[in-house]
């Protein structure tokens, strides 16, 4: 199959009065399109040799080590959860660890990114509504990239 990608910029109001300006929309300046960019970042994947299970039992919010708890993990801010329910600290931290470990497993290896462009185009071409599928992929790329990489 063949894929055609066409960009149709939104014409500013009042453009009809300036004929030469209307025909040159998007040619003079950089035209920014919505969507996501992709970055390949190589990270250091060292294993910890410390048992930190005892440290988690005594979580204190004023501890400088808990700064990372204020960061969002899949929509949850764990410092707020621990403030509201300190009696569930062990369970909350176990849930946080589970979310972090599942996030790591969703990361892609370099060789899985090799054919990502072709896999994306294939998913769009095979869809019953290609335009809607392309819009969903563009707007939700980080969420769908792992399923795209598994496309045969």
Outline the structure in words.
- This protein is mostly helical and 152 residues long.
- The protein folds into 2 domains: 15-33 and 109-149, no CATH class; 53-105, no CATH class.
- It is 42% helix and 3% strand.
- It contains 7 helices and 2 strands.
- The protein has helices spanning 19-23, 53-57, 78-84, 89-105, 116-126, 130-139, 141-149; strands spanning 72-73, 76-77.
- Strands 1-2 form a two-stranded antiparallel sheet.
- Strand 1 (72-73) and strand 2 form a beta hairpin.
- Helix 5 (116-126) packs antiparallel against helix 6 (130-139).
- The longest helix has 17 residues, at 89-105.
- The protein is elongated and about 70 Å long.
- The model is unreliable at 60-65 (pLDDT under 50).
- GO terms for molecular function: UDP-glucose:glycoprotein glucosyltransferase activity; unfolded protein binding.
- Residues 105-151 form the UGGT thioredoxin-like domain.
- It comes from Taxus chinensis.
- This is UGGT thioredoxin-like domain-containing protein.
Features:
single chain; 152 residues; mainly alpha; 2 domains; 7 helices; 2 strands; UDP-glucose:glycoprotein glucosyltransferase activity
Oligomer category: single chain
Describe the sheet with the most strands: 2 strands, antiparallel
How much of the sequence is in beta strands? under 5%
Q: Would you count the extended β strands for me?
A: 2
Computed over alpha carbons, the radius of gyration is 23 Å
**Secondary-structure class:** mainly alpha
Helix amount: 40-55%
Order of helices and strands: HHEEHHHHH
- Global mean pLDDT: 72
Number of domains: 2
């Amino acid at each position: 199959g063949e894929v055609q990608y066409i960009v149709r910029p939104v014409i500013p109001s009042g453009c009809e009065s300036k004929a030469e300006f209307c025909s040159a929309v998007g040619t003079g300046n950089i035209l920014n399109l919505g969507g996501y960019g992709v970055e390949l970042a190589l990270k250091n994947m060292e294993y910890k040799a410390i048992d930190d299970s005892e440290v988690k039992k005594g979580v204190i919010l004023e501890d400088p080590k808990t700064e990372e708890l204020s960061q969002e993990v899949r929509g949850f801010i764990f410092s707020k959860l621990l403030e509201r329910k300190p009696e569930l600290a062990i369970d909350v931290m176990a849930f946080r660890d589970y979310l972090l470990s599942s996030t790591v497993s969703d990361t892609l290896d370099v060789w899985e990114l090799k054919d990502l462009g072709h896999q994306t185009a294939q998913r769009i071409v095979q869809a019953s509504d290609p335009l809607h599928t392309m819009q969903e992929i563009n707007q939700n790329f980080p969420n769908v990239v792992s399923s795209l990489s598994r496309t045969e």
